[in-house]
Amino acid sequence: MAHLIKTKRGLDIKIEGKAKETLGRTIHSDIVALVPDYFVGIVPKMLVKPGDAVKAGTPVFHDKTFADMNFVSPVSGTIVDIVRGERRKILAVTIKRDAKTDYETFSVKSLAELSRDQIKELMLAAGVWPFIKQRPYDIVADPTKQPNSIFISGFDSSPLAPDYDFILGGKEKELQCGIDVLSKLTDGNVHLGLKAGNRSPLAELKNVQITEYDGPHPVGNVGIQIHHTHPINKGDVYWTINIQNLLFIGRLFLNGTVDFSYTVALTGPDVNEDARRYYKTILGVSITPFIKSNVSVGIPLRYITGNVLTGMKLNEDEYLHPCASQITVIEEGSETHEILGWAMPRFDKFSASNLFLTKILGKLGLNNFKYDARILGGERPIIVSNEYDKVLPMDILPEFLIKAMITGNIDKMEALGAYEIAPEDLALCEFVCTSKLPIQEITRKALDNLKSEVE
Amino acid sequence: MNVLKKYIDKIKPNFEKGGKFEKLHSVFEGFESFLFVPNTTSKKYGAHIHDAIDSKRTMTAVIIGLVPALLFGMYNVGHQHFIAIGETVNLWQTFAFGLLSVLPIMVVSYVVGLGIEFIFAQIKGHEIQEGFLVTGFLIPLIVPVDTPLWMIAIATAFAVIFAKEVFGGTGMNIFNVAIVTRVFLFFAYPTAMSGDTVWVRTKSALGYAGGEQINGFTGATPLGQIGTAEGTMAQITDTLGNPIGFWDGFLGLIPGSIGETSTLAILLGAVVLLITGVASWKTMFSVFAGGAFMGFIFNLSGFNAVANFPWYMHLVFGGFAFGAVFMATDPVTSARTETGKWIYGFLVGIIAILIRVLNPGYPEGMMLSILLMNAFAPLIDFYVVDANIKRRMKRAQLNK
């Protein structure tokens, strides 16, 4: 019987548009791309130039600090372009896909024969390393450090989240191999968080410490799970990995090839009803084929890779985030003009506060709330107190931590829990904030700042 | 609605950089966001949907909460006036007199305060913030009805500039702006703020319903009466000398600052604040608890008339209830941690009664008590946060 942890604080936001548990057609795009910005904390150095031919698994660029950390092509094809932005920053490397996929082969032995360093070396060379993230700072894991433990969340509690039990059912072999690999990288345990009361196929996995969690979002966030089992203190290092990315590691050690195929859920109120399902695809694919004739027409839309709380906005031709198993489409709202919003009842608006009738309407079953990407107010200094506390199930005083992050007070950030926090853990704080502060952006900058000051 | 939106879009360029009315940019923007919810959308990275709550909505809830106290205050101003001049009139005439007396104060408070806010917003180049909407509503409710308008103008200007804008505007102030206005009035113009003659208007309101004060009338507030009483026991009376008790204080047809007299009307406001969750019930409850506790202690000792004033009477007379519900709960100037709120509120209650009983010159203690605790709120929070830090440190050592 797995250990059960219950959390109370948090918020489940009900939005229309969950994906049905069926698979749509497999989606490919002719062009795939590697976006260095999706891997926080690395600086890319190019290894190829436009016109070069690559196979699936060929290094495209590596990190400047850790030169053996490769980022590899998910497909075989030709490098089309290296898209650069201001100050020649690399924004994306685009690759034209061949009709048939050739794989680079890596020589793999059975795990028992491999030492920890050999495993690391292989993972770095084959490009599966960057999917491992580390706490503190929520960045790509530093391969020179030893993690106390490794944490994986086996479910996602965010709005319209994909169901990992559905996505991963039947892939136990790859997952088990991935877990076995990870367990060789730490002296501690590999932890897996599962949703309480779910008969998950993941519960059968071995070599892993399973904990069940019950509560509202963000209980599925790995940061919350770490906090409740092994709180991070100064000097501790924990690693985390998205459970779909774990498949990549498993496949590498099972087959000796890089196979970055995975499953994405297309969700959101502005996705046509019959298109709200799961799609098999490959890493680095563009969002274009997903949304083509699948979304509402005639209104400005917002395409998000990830969920509505933590995802990233994409243009119609940009590329999916490698760690997000979900696409969400909502209305942009830039052409909506609500008159006298501060005074109107606004029955179609969701609020965690009692300044709207959300709770009463919810009890009556009339929770047909509409969402768009407007921030619905003006940015202000923090006015209301005890707002963030209600949605963060951690022994942390979020308001004071956020203030320390805004003012760049390193000592206070350390003392108040910045090492435990990732921007995604504070996403609900950003959602409920009366003062409309960009809390995740503040957190990201503060963590970068903290790292540069401390290390 | 569309016509209005089109008109606004048409005149908008005049207020933008280089336009004819560039200097009124913040004012224009303020009115635009007042009319229409801003359609700024979320950034590329971060939460893409937001709770519909915003600071305008929050402030609106406080104002709705203040409405019963305002309406009752207006009625009571008229009621006291017609008693003082010995005339019997109907409800509407009574209310009309109050309206004509209170409205000018409100207009002055808003015009001066918002005027300064607009200027500062323009200078700093930020949006107009709605904090003063509440402050401007509070000011008329906490002054005696006979306060000269020019005094209100000066005090409001002082408070907005020196208690708020110099600290950085809404959300950054240390002291409650309305309280600072009241304190400024009290210390700069003590004769206009205390005594027996300022609480009831005996002259006309904008020329309406003037009259002569009748014999036997005395305009002292109940707290004023027991503050100046000889001996250790005192009976409080209304303006005509009839004895009054707890329920008179609760209903509030007694002399006092405009909005503070009726505990009933204030509690109606409290219900609004608590249901909407805008004010903290912890602060509100603990202020009453602190006041009752201190009043009870003094009842036991009973060395002068105020000390003998029953503890439950302290809660319904004077500005205690108004301060507890609307002033102490100001989230910006009160303690911001949940544990801190208990301590902060309890001390506000205790100190208010302490000042009432032990300070012979000044019968009311609520305003100074809240002002004092405003100064200490950050210290209370500091220790609560420090306790969290220590707990976290301890956890770190246990793990080693």
Word description of this protein:
The complex is a heterodimer of chains A (455) and B (400). With 455 residues, chain A is an alpha/beta fold. Chain A folds into four domains: 3-21 and 107-255, 3-Layer(aba) Sandwich (Rossmann fold); 31-97, Beta Barrel (OB fold (Dihydrolipoamide Acetyltransferase, E2P)); 264-340; 389-454, no CATH class. Helix content of chain A is 22%, strand content 19%. Chain A is built from eleven helices and 19 strands. Chain A has a seven-stranded mixed β-sheet with strand order 1-13-12-11-14-9-10. Chain A has a five-stranded mixed β-sheet with strand order 16-15-19-17-18, with helices on one face. In chain A, helix 3 packs across helix 5 (243-255) and helix 8 packs antiparallel against helix 9. The mean pLDDT of chain A is 93. Chain B is an all-alpha fold. Helices cover 62% and strands 0% of the residues of chain B. The model of chain B has no long low-confidence stretch (mean pLDDT 89). Chains A and B meet through helix 10 and helix 11 of A and helix 2, helix 3 and helix 16 of B.
Give the gist of this structure.
The complex is a heterodimer of chains A (455) and B (400). Chain A contains 11 helices and 19 strands.
Provide the residue-averaged pLDDT of chain A: 93
**Number of contiguous helices of chain A:** 11
Described by the principal axes of the CA atoms, the overall outline of chain A is globular
The count of strands of chain A amounts to: 19
**Helix and strand string of chain B, N-terminal first?**
HHHHHHHHHHHHHHHH
Strand order of the largest sheet of chain A: 1-13-12-11-14-9-10
Mass-distribution shape of chain B:
globular
List keywords for this structure.
heterodimer, A: 455 residues, alpha/beta, Rossmann fold, OB fold (Dihydrolipoamide Acetyltransferase, E2P), 4 domains, seven-stranded mixed sheet, 11 helices, 19 strands, 19% strand, B: 400 residues, mainly alpha
Chart the SSEs and their pairings.
The complex is a heterodimer of chains A (455) and B (400).
Chain A: E1 3-6, E2 31-34, E3 44-46, E4 53-54, E5 59-63, E6 70-72, E7 77-84, E8 90-97, H1 116-126, E9 133-135, E10 139-140, E11 149-153, H2 164-168, H3 172-183, E12 190-195, E13 209-214, H4 222-229, E14 238-240, H5 243-255, E15 261-267, E16 278-282, H6 288-291, E17 301-305, E18 312-314, E19 326-331, H7 358-363, H8 398-407, H9 410-416, H10 427-432, H11 439-454
Chain B: H1 2-15, H2 25-35, H3 55-84, H4 91-124, H5 131-141, H6 149-164, H7 177-188, H8 190-193, H9 222-227, H10 246-251, H11 263-276, H12 281-301, H13 311-316, H14 320-327, H15 338-358, H16 366-399
Helix pairs in contact in B: 3-4, 3-5, 3-11, 4-5, 4-6, 5-7, 6-7, 7-16, 11-14, 12-14, 12-15, 15-16
